[in-house]
Amino acid sequence: MQKTELIFIASPGLSHLVSTAETAKLLLQRDERLSITVLIMKRPNENLTEYYTQKFWSNSNINSRLKLINLPYQENSPVSTNYLFDFIDNQKDPIREIVSNFLKNPSESKLGGLVLDMFCTKFIEIANEFNLPSYVFFTSGACALGLFFHLVELKYEQNQDLHMYKNSDVELSIPCFSVPVPAKVLPAVFVEEGPMSSIFLNYFKRILETNGIMVNTFHELEHFAIESLSNQNKCPKVYPVGPIMSSSSDDEQSTHQGYDEIKKWLDEQPESSVIFLCFGSRESFEEAQVKEIASALEKSGQRFLWSLRKPWGKGMMQIPTEYEDFHEVLPEEFLERTEGTGKVIGWAPQVAVLSHPAIGGFVSHCGWNSTLESVWFGVPIATFPLYAEQQLNAFELVKELGMAEEIRIDFKKDMRGEKPSEIVGSEEIEAAIRRLMVDEGGHRVRNKVKEMKEKSRMALMEGGSSYNAQSVFIEDVIMNVS
């Protein structure tokens, strides 16, 4: 039986790699006719990426049809405001060589195309050079994809200056949303002065050149946006194949340093009584904001588990570190006063924590992976977005879907550290925690999330919406090379 090979190209960063690798594994489990190579871009000192790839590979039961290849680090990669895309684009020659070698060396597999991360669309040129189909794996949701296409249209077809939406109170009619979208939740990169808006939108514009888009979502969660995209003539075929997340919760529980202590504490708490605060692998807060969060938690009286990490330097490329002593940043005697009702920890095994029955709420930055994980485990969110498309995700959860409580929707952190950060006050945070964990409105949100939890699992079962979308994608890939 001839196999069809796909080459997946993940952009740098753990969140993109996790969903890309897990998608590859899922497709391989679905159809024995496929084999997949995942190309990994690893920045220096990215230990979590290395740890994940090792564990992913060792736990995989489809190793014979799966290859993971670390692309070479480009020592002379320029450091600039466009560092991420420069870093990605500098991999063009190694990727071309891998594709060329595959085509030169006959094997039992026929190359079916390139599956590109949403930030790797420049490599469409390599697919075209070798007359191969190209697909995109979009690691965020359908609403975000629809918004990006809408902004591409505004800029390139209607010649709008998107800077006009900075700090604007206008609300936009966007096809993939059923409600008007405030300009204040648009990703900051699109409305700020400077070249980055055009750089980002050019990458998203090129998605329209591909043969299809796999989106990490499922029809029941974003049916309005998915149907809107499917009805747009210029949009390639959309395959909602999610929710796709890390499948390593058991592995995290057994290997993460300190998890035994976390689990022991959670085991002692009543069911659905603990609110979990965690803000992703790259997010942290300055001392003033930490103190406001601490005050809110203490005043709320709620049990809490707080993943608190230390800022390290300035800029988006820096990864938070661990505090040696939480007393250096928390209010005086906070740990002593909250002993028994709360626990402050460093880096958290998020999937393992969210799966614990004691967790009843989640203060989250609303990254898409975290959003899907909250749905999968039926844990409602209080929204605290920081950057990228997180404000849009928060708006979708609160206003479009009614599945979260708002701390803030439009809060934006200056990830470059060039401006003083806005501070969200303790009263605002405390009120949202109470609404989520205690008030009647929180019960309505909780019920919606639990209902979507069941739908998320059904979507991936045989005959489910995402199962069927995966099947259609596989058949389309094979048909395009036959």
From TrEMBL:
PROSITE patterns membership: UDPGT
Enzyme kind, highest EC tier: transferase
Keywords from the named record: Glycosyltransferase, Transferase
Protein name: Glycosyltransferase
Superkingdom of the organism of origin: Eukaryota
Gene3D superfamilies found in the cross-reference section: Glycogen Phosphorylase B
EC number of this enzyme: 2.4.1.-
Organism: Penstemon smallii
Pfam families named among the record's database cross-references: UDPGT
Record family assignment: Belongs to the UDP-glycosyltransferase family.
InterPro entries noted in UniProt: UDP-glycosyltransf_plant, UDP_glucos_trans, UDP_glycos_trans_CS
Record GO terms (molecular function): glycosyltransferase activity
Signal peptide, first to last residue: none
